[in-house]
Automatic annotation (TrEMBL):
Family matches, as CDD domains: MFS_MosC_like (cd17393)
Entry-linked Pfam families: MFS_1 (PF07690)
Transmembrane segments: 15-35, 47-66, 78-95, 101-124, 136-156, 168-188, 283-304, 310-334, 346-367
Cellular localisation: Membrane
Segments forming a coiled coil: none
Name the record gives this protein: MFS transporter
Keyword set, alphabetical order: Membrane, Transmembrane, Transmembrane helix
UniProt cross-references to PANTHER family, sorted A to Z: BYPASS OF STOP CODON PROTEIN 6, INNER MEMBRANE PROTEIN YBJJ
């Protein structure tokens, strides 16, 4: 009886966190897929729109950094329970206002809280994976992909039936907020008690954060994972922002067919994440990350060389299967690298999610405009393939690290 209770509690915690990932995937998709409708509602010019869109990931980075300090005083599960409803309500506010300043405030709140939400969700995922003792992070991100597909599909329904944004958002938020609040009752935080003593230690001129159990967080050690995170999101933002334009303008597809690659990409991302944990358990994280980088690089190569729209779609399919494993495994690797300070490591790593998002789309757009879009696709290809150089950073950390018995250390895996 005593042995069954922790197992059941972990399963409940895993299911409730997966629900939160699903809700966030749906909410984010409902925002990004209806940006043209938001632009029309508020009369925002094409020149001003990029400023609004850039502000969200910048503020999300601020929210992620703030969460690193916030979880020293409260557990990530409590942070997640507070911010997830706020993110949903910020979406509703963005779709219900009438003046530009109201949209600006709503997006600012959305950005700050979504950064805290992303960080706290992945903190919980890392701690749960440690408690399970096997790979489960890809499953959480698979739930996010499923939520994204659901949100994008609902957004399509809203666009098809010409529903006003408040009419589309209000019923969905009315459902998703209670679902998230109920799921939050079963969050499980198995990170241990590492919230006590935090101080800054300067060794060899490099600042590191030392937590009470002796584990240190070094940006030098974390940097390879930060680069992988940025490269993955540069690739992801390239697909989400340029796939339709690429098929229509470069491969001369129809307007209807040009909308298909992103949906295919999301579906293959879901499939890859659904089975990715099994691959990690069987072959190891290093092998899975290398295979994912090779698949993604091959996908970009196929897209760049595609003679027709259908071949281009095959390339975007490979991209989904390859890129989908990189981000979850990067969070998991940070948790293994700093087991006694995984919250801080995840919060810092999460910033590079937004760095990649901010860099990717403008980079490809600038190169495509100045050169051509086929050649522009080779840049994210090269960056994703650089992940292979850092794949050894995903290897398991030797047993005993972070258990409170070793001296303070700085791990260098670069």
């Amino acid at each position: 009886m005593t042995d069954s209770r922790p197992g059941r509690r972990l399963r409940q915690g895993r299911a409730s966190l997966a629900i939160s990932f699903f809700v966030q995937g749906a909410i984010f998709a409902l925002l990004v897929t209806r940006i043209p409708a938001l632009q029309d509602r508020y009369g925002i010019s094409d020149g001003l729109l990029p400023l609004f869109l850039a502000a969200v990931p910048i503020l999300a980075g601020v929210g992620s950094v703030s969460t690193e300090h916030l979880v020293k005083r409260m557990r990530p599960g409590l942070v997640l329970r507070v911010v997830q409803p706020i993110v949903s309500l910020a979406l509703l506010s963005a779709g219900s206002g009438t003046t530009v300043w109201q949209l600006a405030v709503a997006l600012a709140v959305f950005g700050l809280t979504v950064g805290a939400l992303d960080a706290s969700m992945n903190m919980l995922g890392v701690s749960l994976q440690r408690a399970y003792g096997r790979s489960i992070m890809l499953g959480f991100h698979g739930a996010y992909s499923l939520g994204g597909i659901a949100g994008a599909s609902l957004a399509w329904v809203g666009a098809h039936w010409d529903l006003p944004l408040p009419t589309l958002y209000a019923p969905l938020v009315a459902v998703l907020v209670p679902v998230a609040l109920i799921a939050g009752r079963w969050y499980v935080d198995h990170r241990g008690d590492h919230r006590g003593e935090h101080r800054v230690d300067h060794r060899g001129g490099e600042p590191t954060e030392v937590v009470r159990d002796g584990t240190t967080v070094s940006m030098r050690a974390l940097l390879p994972l930060c680069l992988v995170m940025a490269f993955a999101y540069i690739g992801d933002s390239t697909v989400s922002n340029w796939s339709a334009k690429y098929l229509e303008d470069v491969l001369h597809s129809s307007e209807q067919l040009a909308t298909v690659p992103y949906n295919v990409y999301m579906v293959t991302t879901l499939l890859g994440r659904s089975f990715g944990d099994l691959g990690v358990r069987r072959f190891g994280a290093v092998t899975v990350v290398r295979a994912g980088a090779l698949l993604a690089g091959g996908g970009f190569a196929v897209v760049a060389a595609a003679p027709s729209a259908w071949v281009g779609m095959a390339g975007f399919t490979l991209l989904g299967l390859g890129l989908c494993v990189l981000v979850p495994q990067t969070f998991a690797a940070a948790g293994r690298l700093f087991p006694g300070a995984s919250d801080a490591a995840v919060a810092r790593l999460n910033i590079f999610n937004y760095v990649g998002f901010l860099i990717g789309s403008p980079l490809v757009g600038a190169l495509g405009g100045a050169w051509n879009y086929r050649a522009a696709m080779l840049v994210p290809m090269a960056l994703v393939l650089m992940t292979i150089r850092y794949a050894r950073s995903f290897s398991p950390v030797p047993a005993g690290y972070g258990d409170g018995h070793e001296r303070p250390r700085t791990v260098d895996v670069g």
